[in-house]
Amino acid sequence: MALCLARPGSHPHIDVSIAKRDNPLTSLLSVLSGALGVGGNNSELDSETPNPQGSGRPRANAALERTLTHYAGYAEATYELTGKPWSCQTCQKPEFQGTIVDVYWENAINGSTGYIAHNPKEKLIVISFRGSKELSDWRDSLNIDLVPWPASIPGSQVMAGVHEGYASLEPRIIPYVASLAERYPDYAILATGHSLGGARASLCALDLSIQHPQLVSRLRLYTYGIPKLGNSEFANAISRLGIPAYRAVNRGDLAPHLPIGLSDYVHFGTEAWIRDSGVTVCNGPTSGQCSDTLPPLSLNLVDHSSYPGMV
Fold first, then answer.
1. Does residue 311 belong to any structural domain of this protein?
2. pTM of the full structure
3. How confident is residue 67, by pLDDT bands cut at 50, 70 and 90?
4. Which of 183, 185, 211, 259 has its CA 20 to 30 Å from the CA of residue 139?
5. Is residue 209 part of a domain?
6. The domain that contains 91 carries what CATH number?
7. Measured distance CA(280)–CA(51) in Å, rounded
8. Which residues are catalytic, by number?
9. Spatial distance between the Cα atoms of 135 and 25, rounded to a whole number of angstroms
């Protein structure tokens, strides 16, 4: 019950504030976070001095911030697409026009939705997984037992719910991405997603690197608001890939601090903590410089659904 993973349901023509207020998953999140004694207000973060453009103060890691915001659009598209045509509100933005969806899936059994696409203008192959939206997604999210995976990495364990959802997709996704990468040998490969989607994207990135090590140099992993996914062996396996592997954390988002109180769970890669002043980059699971410095009562649910590039 520790996993509060959800993104308020949205639609290109529905006011986001209404969606956040009325979505039953958001109400469930509020109950769970209250039971854990976390979540509430943004007082700790709101005291920070904003850094609007033109203020004369340089934004921290501005180039990374632009990349995070841009790739967030590919994660956002999973909430908006309803089929293979690249047609959605985010899709219409100039920077995403010309993207071609090669595979779209929507699995009612495990609650997974996502797509594989390529963008000739960016020379980019995209694997994007949708985050928690339906009750079936919650079934996966709430299973926080650790299970051995992948078999080739001794001692590595990952969250059972995330693994179950990904394992059913792997036989279709990995071979197709490999064939697409062979067709476009000069394209980078992006694995991305928000919340539960970012969790599945993380497993996909590691899996792809194991089954097709020749693609590691082209691989990049950008996730948004993901929980801790596994133990230290799993985290180290992703770090050893030497790829850009960023875990974006928006202000006081509660989700990246979950599961709470389970010491076996640790984060992988580099945290990119998004605040008004820019992006703070921290390496390692607890650096004492990023979101792990926040007091528990400043963690909240609103920031989980308001990542730059996804609103």
1. no
2. 0.84
3. very high
4. 211
5. yes
6. 3.40.50.1820
7. 14
8. 195, 253, 304
9. 8
